[in-house]
Design brief:
- There is one protein chain.
- By secondary structure, the protein is of the alpha/beta class.
- It contains 9 helices and 7 strands, in the order βαβαβαβαβαβαααβα.
- A 7-stranded parallel β-sheet has the order 3-2-1-4-5-6-7, with helices on both faces.
- α1 links the parallel β1 and β2.
- α1 packs across α8, α3 runs parallel beside α4 and α4 packs parallel to α5.
- The protein is globular.
């Protein structure tokens, strides 16, 4: 089993859980020195930058040299960031898609030949509730997670004849370091701009959603438990919605329609404008 993005959060928790369940696990990260705890727990560790083609190839080939194929791939590595569309740089959009979409596709392309040869395998992709309902200032992160929805629908049908399962995990807000990391990728140089009141409202909403003890916030272990369930199931579901945000927000979005949803979001994230 190969898990990407194991330095913190869901990736680290997943690698530990799989190892403790008795599976041979390769935990990966861009900086292998962040994986010492996982190595001590029984994981094999490997350097892997999913945005680098050679790094992806080296990692998969190393595992195949020992096991002939990657039996389970957990595409967890992710890049956050977002802001008002007018302010987001195209450089940030490219960075997010390089990790969340292009790097993920590259990993799938590398493991699929081995999985087809052994007539089986599981690919688990980490999506998000943001790929179901886009929050304001959620782009480009939400855009990348919407792309995974489409990717998984196509890939699932393509590889099913070869005995390969494709699973999409759709968690709501998760209390990990990912939020702090995402804040470092916000557009810079727009302080005091026209969207400043709106961004302040979004920050307050996000802080409420992630505060300690918040009812709807998930832990990394909550998501890990679902991943473990998916990879051990004989016939895993195509999608696993984790948490009330993923389950309820899309239903509300559909029932309210565009105007109703927009009105609801304006109440949730007020945007004062000077008359």
């Amino acid at each position: 089993m190969l898990v990407t993005g194991c330095s913190t959060g869901i990736g680290r928790a997943t690698a530990l859980a799989l190892a403790r369940a008795g599976f041979p696990v390769w935990a990966s990260a861009r900086r292998v020195e962040t994986l010492v705890e996982l190595r001590q727990a029984g994981c094999r560790t490997i350097e892997l930058d999913v945005t680098d083609e050679q790094s992806r190839t080296n990692a998969v080939r190393s595992i195949e040299a020992e096991y002939r194929a990657v039996g389970v791939l957990v595409n967890n590595a992710g890049h956050g960031g977002g802001g008002p569309v007018e302010e987001v740089t195209l450089g940030l959009v490219r960075e997010v898609f390089e990790t969340n979409v292009f790097g993920l596709i590259g990993m799938c392309q590398l493991v699929l030949p081995g999985m087809r040869a052994r007539r089986g395998g599981v690919i688990v992709n980490l999506g998000s509730a943001a790929g179901l309902v886009t929050p304001p200032t959620g782009c480009p992160y939400a855009m990348s997670k919407y792309a995974l929805e489409s990717l998984c629908d196509a890939l699932r049908l393509e590889v099913a004849p070869f005995g390969i399962q494709v699973v999409l995990i759709e968690p709501g807000a998760v209390r990990t370091q990912f939020l702090a990391n995402s804040e470092r990728h916000q557009p810079q140089g727009h302080q005091g701009g026209p969207y400043e009141p709106f961004k302040a409202s979004v920050e307050r909403m996000t802080a409420r959603a992630h505060r300690e003890g918040a009812r709807d916030v998930l832990t990394a272990q909550d998501v890990t438990n679902v991943i473990l369930k998916a990879v051990t199931a004989r016939r895993p579901k195509a999608r696993y919605k984790v948490g009330s945000q993923s389950r309820l927000a899309p239903v509300a979005r559909q029932l309210l329609g565009d105007r109703g949803w927009d009105a609801f979001m304006r109440r949730m994230v007020p945007f004062p404008v000077d008359e």
